Amino acid sequence: MSSSSPATIEDVARIAQVSIATVSRAIHTPEKVANSTRLKVNQAIAITGYTTNAMARSLRLGRSNMILVVAPDIGDPNFSNILVGLENEARAHGYGILIGHTQNDPQRGLEYLKFLNSSQAAGLILFTGILPFGHQSMTARLPPSVGVFEPVYNGGIPYVGVDDIEGARKAVDLLIAEGHRKIAFIGDSRTRLAYSRRRQGYDEGLDAAGVPVGERIVLEGDGTIESGRLALEQLFMRDTLPSAFMCVNDQTAIGVMIGLGARGYDIPTDFSVTGFDDVPQATFMTPSLTTIRQPRTAIGKRSMALLLELLSGSAPPEAEILLRPDLIVRNSVSMPARRFLKK
């Protein structure tokens, strides 16, 4: 196919041996097309360069149909499912996705703003929870932007995510219902708003149960497995053990469970543990982890829909949309061990 003749949807349909309508569905609503058919269409698109030519036409018209997604850690188990929702919604409206990986370095986000300034991207989806360092000197104002998964700490831009306070309340209410009162919160943070909201849910739950502030145990953490393990070691050094651990996320909970197992304790006979997120590993832990499930694909879909509304000028500039979490009860929670019931 010559470079002077841009590929058409008819070219894609002919190579994939499907109808033009099927090609359109595979591009815009891929979830409605059989996997085998979608694969054939995607292969035909790759062969013809159809998508590339469509993007080039949009750039020649002076606008971009690409959305920049800036994420701190593309290996985060939450990222891939949110990305599915983002991409499906974007493709359904003729947009594509560019991924900028900051590797948890706030300054790297600034490099990706060059895409926005050069009109290579129309809008921004931000997973980092902070605006790119130095953005004020890079651009007079940010393009239409939406924070996802982590509320933007220094931004005031629209946000779509799970209701962290409600999710934390569900976890603490479960522990209270099982008879726990000495519940440790592992993973408090002054800079991550999602974590501070989960701490708020923890406090509200214990307030409702009449547990005095002086009886609460709160340790900071960065959401990693190692931070969960280190928090556990701190508690054993202090000799102030809770009967249950309410962890800010599943990675932290896994670290706590590993530490307890290394000390010879049984979960949930000796201690109960809850997480937050419902990452894939939660199911395969021994015991399986009771946690709060985020509707990740729905978060991705709704956040992209909000960004497209901002691009069209039909959404308020500081909207916050919180989706409801689900409590997933597995095998890491039971009533407190006998030693915690004596008093």
From TrEMBL:
CDD domains: HTH_LacI
GO molecular function: DNA-binding transcription factor activity; transcription cis-regulatory region binding
Matching Gene3D superfamilies: 3.40.50.2300, lambda repressor-like DNA-binding domains
Assigned keywords, A-Z: DNA-binding, Repressor, Transcription, Transcription regulation
Location of the HTH lacI-type domain: 7-61
Pfam families: LacI, Peripla_BP_3
Keyword hit for Transcription regulation: yes
InterPro entries xref list: HTH_LacI (IPR000843), LacI/GalR-like_sensor (IPR046335), Lambda_DNA-bd_dom_sf (IPR010982), Peripla_BP_I (IPR028082)
PROSITE patterns, alphabetized: HTH_LACI_1, HTH_LACI_2
Protein's UniProt name: LacI family DNA-binding transcriptional regulator
Organism: Shinella zoogloeoides (Crabtreella saccharophila)
